[in-house]
Amino acid sequence: MGLFKDLISIKDLTREEIDHVLVTADAMEPLAASGSDMLKGKILASLFFEPSTRTRLSFEAAMLKLGGSVISITEPRVSSVEKGENLADTIRVVENYADVIVLRHPLEGAARLAAEFSSVPIINAGSGAEEHPTQALLDLFTIFKNKGDIDGLNIALMGDLRYGRTVHSLAYALSNYAVNLYLVSPRLLRMRREIVEDISGKIKVEELEDVEEILPELDVLYVTRIQKERFPDLEEYEKVKGSYKVDLNLLSKAREDLILLHPLPRVGEIAPEVDSTRHAKYFQQTRFGLITRMAILALVLGAVD
Amino acid sequence: MGLFKDLISIKDLTREEIDHVLVTADAMEPLAASGSDMLKGKILASLFFEPSTRTRLSFEAAMLKLGGSVISITEPRVSSVEKGENLADTIRVVENYADVIVLRHPLEGAARLAAEFSSVPIINAGSGAEEHPTQALLDLFTIFKNKGDIDGLNIALMGDLRYGRTVHSLAYALSNYAVNLYLVSPRLLRMRREIVEDISGKIKVEELEDVEEILPELDVLYVTRIQKERFPDLEEYEKVKGSYKVDLNLLSKAREDLILLHPLPRVGEIAPEVDSTRHAKYFQQTRFGLITRMAILALVLGAVD
Amino acid sequence: MGLFKDLISIKDLTREEIDHVLVTADAMEPLAASGSDMLKGKILASLFFEPSTRTRLSFEAAMLKLGGSVISITEPRVSSVEKGENLADTIRVVENYADVIVLRHPLEGAARLAAEFSSVPIINAGSGAEEHPTQALLDLFTIFKNKGDIDGLNIALMGDLRYGRTVHSLAYALSNYAVNLYLVSPRLLRMRREIVEDISGKIKVEELEDVEEILPELDVLYVTRIQKERFPDLEEYEKVKGSYKVDLNLLSKAREDLILLHPLPRVGEIAPEVDSTRHAKYFQQTRFGLITRMAILALVLGAVD
Hints:
homotrimer, alpha/beta, Rossmann fold, five-stranded parallel sheet, four-stranded parallel sheet, 37% helix
């Protein structure tokens, strides 16, 4: 067994453990091109009880690039779950078919429960509204690769900070580093109080509604989708949405080396004209997602230390 | 080619052939941990025209553990079948892509028909209400591994014996051995007359409604789900369901070495408190399912004798 | 990189390039039986935004036979696409997970667009009503293998020539060879004017409504489905459908060495009694599809010259 058996919450990891994932990912990069036999004979079970094509493909590709293979449930409606089986039973069956389980589940705490019943490693690929630890790790890896270091950076998270699990996990992850964190959102979509309190004790956090105030200082701008459905009335939505859209005009006020990240899919938050600028790193982020997940799989399966 | 080309019905196998599968499975056990290249370059087509996540994953994992690979149809609604293609044509297409076909189909006789048209081996993964031969083989393997022998055992099948294809195939499989077979079910859900007649000629069979009468003698208790939908009126269902539930209280009357099996998923037939007892073997049964299917794949593909 | 980076339209290929695919496919045939490590470590992303089980399985099997592996989206409804992501973004994400992308899409031009955004090869597995280049190549390969040569043959395409993308791509492909092409269809389902004009400049083309006139001269009869839905009134449909059905009676007027092809699935256009005749090559065509796609994958990935 490597560094940790399961990966359930970013809050379970120390800074040393996170750094170790980043360093391991860095060493994986050449294997993403060449392929490897590191996990030959091992099987990943990919259990998606909620659709997330991108995350699923990323994990499956990571496993395959390391020479392992994949079985998957992507159709919860037609699985035993429909026959009323509980998650604990599903896990105790699937652990007999696989060497590691990647779980995506709509309910808070599902991954933690799974890990309690499973003798093989459980990797949380998103559960409830709170946790998406591998996304946070790949976000950190992208920052690390572009900036060389995470300490000392000015980082803004912008958009829907209330409902997006990505930014929740990322905020906790960043609180391990000496960063200045700016939380930019409409009032209605501010980050939950308990998270802000948790991380404020560790790093400098500032909440604001308009990114322009701090844009010239930023090293990293992390954008998320603002979903119309979150607003009680459409008028309110129409009023705010413009201020959370990144285009060339906005970027003209940013530092030359600002990097722009987004968990994708995007739906209008970043104008296509931005794609060809030096700021745009959201597709590279996808590539780093593959590499980070290769590292995580290798670590939980004990193929690297 | 190994022992047999296709595996359609447990009734097609002699005791010698069944024993050979069990011995082969025993030899496969270490390969489930380490992986193997035995079926490298071979492709399994997994055709599930009826959902059965557990069985599908089990076969796919078995193929992958032996170094083979997998293509699959799990979405009959969006396949050529929807365009009106008949099964014979589907098989004559898929046999060109794969080295072995695992077929699950709602209609009786589908697997037999497929085998007539296919030049590659067909393995029946459940068809109609009658046949599920690989489940019967893995049930036998679990009994064999726990008891060392099948001859001489007292075995009860309990629950819905009328509609469950699992218990039909298992009853036929057991009739090759010198066992005492007890069929425990509500009157409405008794095993079909023709099956009881078939096997009564070969082994001692007793039908009863209450397991407690024979529980102290049992070596194996095989439990299946009783589905509410099978009862014309709910009152009838409520009356019987309690008697077919296994809990610690019931087990206190059983032998210490009684083993408890279930094809899973369970929905209340076995209380969770039972899971941690020495009787509970239903999750181990899943593991033995993987191993038995590795053996079956290796046999039909001629990779072992 | 091999002969070409992407395969979008059969119209992009010269005769020399087509011939090169056929020769490469011929060399692949033994590998379909034995398997190979030619594409070990490489990943195919199979993106089907429109169901086509047969084509998907064929590509996936081709990749696996060459030692590569596969990730796939077969459920457009539950993918990011549902969240409103555009195709360009999807491609720029998936190219980071895979070494080659096979794309099936309901819209004309989708594959071309994908190729513009992708740094990894795009293979068009059907887009809109126009293009299905790999089907055309496997059709040519089947003719080539059965006849030894394509030049000089009398070839009829029969059935729905208006809506079937298969026959559109095939007509263009055949226009590179010295063939006599007969287009046999009901008036309502005649091939589109622009295609007939395009190919008439290069080869002899004749349109007719009844195959019997030219049947005795034919080397190849390529049959497609006539779908009831295409007819404004059912009476019209009932009138024509009989004339486009191939049975033993019709074939008694054909040459002994006529070969009969069909892209499958068929729904009544070819009577089952024909399957056992020497004319029937539509299941062999499926096998040659696997082999042709192995060649195409090896070519775009530069594993063969």
